[in-house]
Amino acid sequence: MACAKIPIVADHERLNDAIEGTGRDGSAPVWVVAGAPGAGKTTVAGLLAARLDPHPAVLDKDTVYGSFAAAVLAAAGREPGEREGDWYDRNVKVHEYQGLTATAREIRGYGCPVLLVAPFTGQIRDPGAWSAWAGRLGGGAVRLVWVSCDPAVLRDRLLARGSERDGAKLAAYAGFVDRMRPDEPPPMPHFAIHNTDSSPARLVEQVERLVAATVNGVPS
């Protein structure tokens, strides 16, 4: 498998075209691996990225913004586990998602595919919001991969991983499940990856079937 090649841009006009995705017939695809925290998005994203050719640039929200979010919470005197709620959404999450979106669009404009990893709850639960966000990503091929998990199993996973990021989720778990709907499919076209049984072989099988269906045109 080859990595995507970044073209050399010789002048400012061509640079702007590349960034906006207007200097070519179509932007490189973007894969969106979404689902509830603890559902297995990072694992699925790793399996998918390894099997795509060319390999995409992987932008995982926790990797890109994890330490930044922790620093903002600390500076504002908030609890380190407050990764949910109105304050976090207004002051942190909106900037995380804007940054991921802008970065993905810029990378795609150079011809490199992108794989985004985050819950993206607001985007995947509202077809209008999804369509608008796909436009901000540069349009073209925006493929949603939704990772599902049974709520009871999800709670056990959050407890087992012992992350301070999950404190607010576990403290009001029923409300968290109502917002995230970890086992309810989103109302737009997507590829579903079912990850309740946590079987590595089962995950690999599903991801390989997804890649075959989308890259090679084999029916799923």
Summarize the structure.
The protein is an alpha/beta fold and 220 residues long. The chain has 10 helices and 5 strands, in the order H-E-H-E-H-H-E-H-H-E-H-H-H-E-H. The chain has one domain: 3-Layer(aba) Sandwich (Rossmann fold).
List keywords for this structure.
220 residues; Rossmann fold; five-stranded parallel beta sheet; 5 strands; 11% strand; globular
State the major sheet.
5 strands, parallel
CATH class: Alpha Beta
Order of strands, main sheet, comes to: 2-3-1-4-5
Number of helices: 10
What is the global morphology? globular
Helical content, roughly?
40-55%
Radius of gyration: 18 Å
- N-to-C span: 22 Å
**How many structural domains are formed by the residues?**
1
Mean pLDDT: 87
CATH topology: Rossmann fold
Q: Could you characterize what this model shows?
A:
The protein has 220 residues and is of the alpha/beta class. Helix content is 51%, strand content 11%. It contains ten helices and five strands, in the order αβαβααβααβαααβα. A five-stranded parallel β-sheet has the order 2-3-1-4-5, with helices on both faces. α1 (12-20) crosses α4, α2 crosses α10 and α3 runs antiparallel to α4. The longest helix has 24 residues, at 86-109.
Topology:
Layout: H1 12-20, E1 30-35, H2 41-51, E2 57-60, H3 61-75, H4 86-109, E3 114-117, H5 121-124, H6 127-136, E4 142-148, H7 151-161, H8 167-171, H9 173-180, E5 191-194, H10 200-215
Parallel strand pairs: 1-3, 1-4, 2-3, 4-5
